[in-house]
Design a protein that fits this description.
single chain; 7 helices; alpha/beta; BirA Bifunctional Protein, domain 2; about 260 residues; about 25% strand
């Protein structure tokens, strides 16, 4: 029998809503109230999210607010992302005894299948960087400065950045699929007057990232990528998606996951 998943397109929401919504999906799944979920969403206003253990003091909070952007902390790890011209996905599922890397691989294969369906000839990274060294490098502040094993790339440049957290056997993984180039402005919001550092980080992002607009040579819509993700997960996981009004999942909006 084909497994049923939920497919939720929650549109464009503020940063705090997006992060809380992902956590609530994990909570509801852990309680057996919903099946596995693939959610796609955007950010309005644009937002900078930082990893669970990343220091907020490296950013100029006043400047971020002056641009009308949100600043939020993700429940997952990883480094900073400027969420702008992109599609963010989240997956809530059971680990079924699989390791973090194994789940990364499964989800990334589904993303690759979807983006191939869209016409982007992307592939998976096969090597693992030395994070103990890279985390000490100022240039590694942006998530897209380093490509991890099983993350999605195109001709050596990173297209998708992802992070994962476990709540017992429950997996919450979310990530950013770059549609346009606005993410390159992230270094402008760092709290430093060292112009050389800013330019060096900008060059890192420029040289190591790529977006769907550049790959496909045309404008790409959020809805196109959302549909490609749905198709990719159906192909890789062999599931069928149900679509339901996501408002029903806000019942635990004020609850915390422990």
């Amino acid at each position: 029998m084909t497994e049923r998943w939920l497919f939720l397109n929650t549109g464009f929401k503020p940063g705090e809503f997006n992060m809380k919504f992902d956590e609530n999906l994990a909570l509801l799944f852990s309680r057996g109230k919903i099946p596995p979920v693939l959610r796609v969403y955007g950010w309005k206003p644009y937002a900078i999210s930082i990893g669970y253990n990343q220091g907020i003091e490296i950013f100029d909070i006043g400047k971020i607010k002056s641009f009308g952007f949100d600043l939020v902390r993700r429940p997952t790890g990883g480094r900073a992302i400027l969420h702008a011209e992109e599609l963010t996905y989240s997956v809530v599922m059971n680990s079924d005894g699989k390791s973090v890397i194994e789940i990364y691989n499964l989800i990334s294969e589904a993303i690759v299948a979807g983006l191939n369906f869209l016409g982007a000839d992307v592939e998976l990274e096969t090597s693992m960087p030395d994070f103990s060294k890279s985390y000490k490098d100022y240039r590694s502040i942006p998530c897209f400065a380093i490509t991890s094993k099983y993350e999605v790339k195109y001709k050596g440049r990173k297209l998708v950045g992802s992070a994962q957290r476990r709540y017992g056997d429950v997996v919450l993984q979310h990530g950013s699929i770059l549609i346009g180039e606005f993410h390159k402005k992230l270094p402008e919001f760092l709290k430093t007057e060292d112009v050389e550092i800013i330019e060096e980080i900008k060059n890192e992002i420029e040289n190591k990232t790529i977006c769907l607009r550049e790959i496909l040579g045309r404008d790409v819509s959020f809805e196109e990528v959302a549909e490609a993700m749905r198709v990719g997960f159906e192909m890789r996981f062999g599931v069928k998606f149900d679509k339901k009004d996501p408002i029903v999942y806000e019942e635990s909006h004020d609850e915390n996951i422990t």
